[in-house]
Amino acid sequence: MLNIAGGSFFTPAAPSQQAYITPGTYSWVAPVGVIKVSVVTVGAGGVSGYSGCGQGGRPGGGGGGLSYTNNISVIPGNSYTVVAGANTSSDGGDSSFNGTVIAGGGKGGGMCACSTGGAGGIGTAGTGGAGGNQAFTAPFCYPKSAGGGGAGGYSGNGGLGGNVSTNGSNGSGGGGGGGAGNSGTNYGDAGGGGGVGILGAGCSGLGATIKGYQGGGGSGGGGGALSPLGGNYGGAHFTGGGAGGGYGAVRIIWPGCARSFPSTRTADE
User: Fold this and answer.
1) Nearest to 262 by CA among 178, 132, 172
2) Whether pLDDT at 141 is above 90
3) What is the DSSP string of the chain?
4) Per-residue pLDDT tens digits for 34-58
């Protein structure tokens, strides 16, 4: 027990955590003994544009951003709003804790082959990386497409999606790798970017090196995927028709004075 102001005693809570990995809005109640927390948020990944203008390839969506803030003061018994970003049919949803520690969702890709992919989500509070964007060059692209960017990292950005006929780039600072662009065979669908994990900093995801393939996941996150989602969390997606990017996520760990992102006791405990 700790002696605090007024001569009363306070018993700190044991190390623990709460993760929100299904899209939605939640109410987190600070447990007894918890006065400091550290929080990481990942925005949902963007979905590719649907090829609604002929037999053109689908450009991938952008990867979600990542933010974290450490040693946040909370009051035991008080409720705090948590939002885990949704993987919609276009732009990915933002994720946040108590209206702060906001990680932007990746943007959806363009609607046709000859358009840009989605921009990466931005970490708008705390520290963290932006989701990867997508390269694109003209004039001739039909029916080719550019790859999806990876999710943001803990100290760097997600990898860029490859331009038409080129490879995706590696993530940095634990970010997901970018998906490769397609060379234009068949419909020319591009690769989705990799997601990122929520257990703290780790290895970066590798960019895809085969045309149309998915980027690797960073920091333990999933790689880009064909169906039904982009790599969780925050990974981009490339297939049209309404499938979403990777889910957003929020993870709260305590005590925040002893556990902090990117890598101080952030593993499960």
Assistant:
1) 172
2) no
3) -EE-GGG-EE-PPPSEEEEE-SSEEEEEEPPTT--EEEEEEEPPPPPPPP--SSSPPPPPPPPPPEEEEEEEE--TT-EEEEEEPPB-SSSBPPEEETTEEEEPPPPPPPSSTTS--PPPP-B-SSB--PPP-B----S--TT-BPPPPPPP-SSSPPPPBP-TTSPPPPPSTTPPPPPPPB--STT-PPPPPP-B-SS---PPPPPP-STTPPPPPBTTPPPPBSSS-PSTTT--B---SS---PPPEEEEEE-TTT-BTTTBS-S--
4) 999 999 999 888 776 655 545 556 6
When comparing pLDDT for 247 and 211, which is higher?
247
Single-letter residue type at 250: V
- What does the block give as tokens for 204? 């970066």
Contact 208, 179 (CB under 8 A): yes
φ/ψ (deg, to 5) at 96: -160, 165
pLDDT of residue 178 exceeding 70, the answer is yes
Beta bridge partners of 18: 252
Closest-CA residue to 94 (of 231, 247, 242): 247
Residue 242 is predicted with a pLDDT of 44
Per residue in 142-162, pLDDT (tens digit) is: 566 777 888 888 988 888 888
Contact 186, 197 (CB under 8 A): no
Can you read off the two tokens belonging to residue 260?
A: 């902090």
From 73, 63, 250, select the one nearest 175 (Cα to Cα).
Answer: 63
C-alpha span between 226 and 224 (Å, rounded)? 7
5 token code pair: 């102001």
Residue among 48, 43, 50, 16 nearest 31 (CA): 16
The answer to whether 155 and 174 have CB atoms below 8 angstroms apart is yes
The answer to whether residue 72 scores a pLDDT higher than 90 is: yes
